[in-house]
Design goal:
Elements lengths: L8 E5 L12 H13 L4 E3 L12 H15 L6 E3 L5 H14 L3 E5 L8 H14 L4 E5 L1 H4 L5 H7 L5 E6 L4 H10 L5 E4 L5 H6 L4 E4 L6 H12 L3 H17 L7 H9 L16 H13 L5 H4 L1
Parallel strand pairs: 1-2, 1-8, 3-4, 4-5, 5-6, 6-7, 7-8
Helix pairs in contact: 1-2, 2-3, 3-4, 4-6, 6-7, 9-10, 11-12
């Protein structure tokens, strides 16, 4: 077993449950977090992409984080989402999250305004200087339209409280280069569930997962097998779960995983525009996978 530090191992990019009238389902948040902790998850990350953060107001983000912190009660670290395209707003959110007691910040690259590599560096440097919290970069170019180049990650890694990067680029070669160019204690975290075993094999220290919203125990087991260098067993379990991992991205995340969780009886299936429920064809595929893997509980069958 590897020595685990905060934000290593299997982390969950938490969905945000909503009520039918569009409000944050506070009781639902508590229920989901409780299940995560009881299933052995290593850390949780609320208010990110999977949490529909762009549709949450600042007050809602802070409230969700307060609930998560209260329910976690110090049992696992909380890596709260604090990213965006306005550096000043991100800094204000980072300060508010620090005041509430989160353990770290997950900060997605600015999207839409497409900064240069120097702009990315100065953006993250300004955030890091505004808080004492550890910061994990979040690189997801397929959504943001900008990639953090390896040289920029290496440069940012020299800032003391920038402690890692969540690489959701899907580019394993880039991840290998990052690993080769950052200090040994800088965390390389995967952001793509299909690459869980691959990321760990090349030197990754963990995954921030979508699938673990629905199947936290199984994803933790895969991670801990990798940490014990039992890659044969990890591959076997990962391959079994792969149909579910893949169907989560049949439409934009978190649409499929929320639909799956609703079918499993874990939450009410509500989204905020511009996200909408899955198409009929996508829903059929999601339900087919859940049936294939016997993931539908009694509540879903009733």
């Amino acid at each position: 077993m590897s020595t685990r530090t905060p934000f290593t191992g299997m982390g969950t990019a938490l969905v945000t449950p909503f009520t039918k009238d569009g409000a944050v389902d506070e009781a639902g948040v508590r229920q989901l977090v409780r299940r995560q902790v009881e299933s052995g998850i290593h850390f949780v990350s609320p208010c990110g992409t999977t949490g529909e953060a762009p549709t949450l107001s600042s007050d809602e983000k802070l409230r969700v984080v307060e609930i998560v912190l209260d329910e976690v009660a110090g049992r696992v670290p909380v890596l709260a989402g604090a990213g965006g395209y306005d550096t000043r707003e991100v800094i204000a959110l980072a300060k508010a999250l620090e005041a509430r007691g989160v353990n770290g910040l997950l900060s997605v690259t600015p999207y839409y305004n497409k900064p240069t590599q120097e702009g990315l560096y100065q953006h993250y440097k300004a955030i890091a200087e505004s808080t004492a919290l550890p910061i994990v970069l979040y690189n997801v170019p397929g959504r943001t339209g900008v990639n953090i180049d390896v040289a920029t990650v290496a440069r940012l890694a020299r800032i003391p409280n920038i402690v890692g990067t969540k690489e959701a680029s899907g580019n394993v070669g880039q991840m290998c280069e990052i690993y080769a160019n950052v200090p040994e204690d800088f965390l390389l975290l995967g952001g793509d569930d299909p690459l869980t075993v691959a990321v760990m094999a090349i030197g990754g220290r963990g995954i921030i997962s979508v699938a673990s919203n629905a199947v936290p125990g199984e994803m933790v087991q895969i991670m801990e097998l990798c940490e014990r260098n039992d890659y044969a067993a990890a591959r076997k379990l990962h391959t079994w779960l792969l149909p579910f991992i893949q169907v989560n991205f049949i439409e934009a995340n978190p649409i499929p995983v929320k639909a799956a969780m609703a079918a499993m009886g874990l939450l009410e299936e509500n989204y905020r525009l511009p996200l909408v429920p899955p198409s009929a064809g996508a829903r059929d595929k999601i339900m087919g996978v859940l049936q294939q893997l016997r993931m539908l509980g009694a509540a879903a069958r009733a």
